[in-house]
Structure prediction request, 315 residues.
Amino acid sequence: MKFRRLGSSDLEVSEISLGSWLTYGGNIRGDQARACVEKAFEVGINFIDTANVYAHGRAEEFLGDVLKGRERGSYILATKLYFEMPGGDRGLSREQVHKQIDASLRRLETEYVDLYQCHRYDEDTPLEETMEALSEVVRAGKARYIGFSEWSSDQIQAPLDLPGVEKFVSSQPQYSLLWREPEEEVIPLCAANGISQIVWSPLAQGVLTGKYKAGQAPPDGSRAASQDSDGTMGRFFRVTTLEAVQRLRPIADALGLSIAQLALAWVLREPNVASAIVGASRPEQVEANAAASGVTLTEGTLEAIDDVLTGAVAA
Prediction:
């Protein structure tokens, strides 16, 4: 496993990180979920990402239980706030920032998180209020650093211009071979200001594993077949996209990689990406994804990838 510095922080995060969206505390339970976390540490992953809203707090509770036997300095833990929780709490007001960090720490059974992230931008709260509250959380020792997810370039620039507040060190956008929107504005702005990307859905919610075939029903047990899927997969389920993904297979085979490993290596070719978050329902998936760390793709391979994906990239 290779490691990269997270923005201007002193955190060294594994190139592949383990996420808990739609999995732990929710669809994947008990020993199976625990085995995935154990495998992550076994293969060198040191970065675990979650959020208060995942499974309505149960993902944090699961991680608190499974991590409590490990030395706290041996892993990097990130969580988030913004989306509505049971009872109606939501947003990035000062009250919510302080309330939600305390609730997350209780569920995670830890005194601090390494990274506390704004899950989205809050249009209903003054930015100054949010940044002051986040700074208070850091200065109280409840979080070491702060980040954000899915903010626009204008939203990213605004806190950079605020004096006397803690600075963001991470951005968590959707980014993959099939979704490249951050390349236009977000990545250049972040790279110039000490902010790294921690990308979610680098496998386009499983489409870039190659397991979904045009004209065929999704495999049993897959996310697309699950009634619990969050409904955001549709943009990648066009026939042309599924067919294009299958054309990646000879490229991956020639390198001794799976399509998923090729896709993860492509994301990690970007220097501003510190880590790619993967979800896993089985330990062997964790191990296979981790093997993408350290893979270098040549310019010829990158050109071949773009050639077969012509017309299939959603953004």
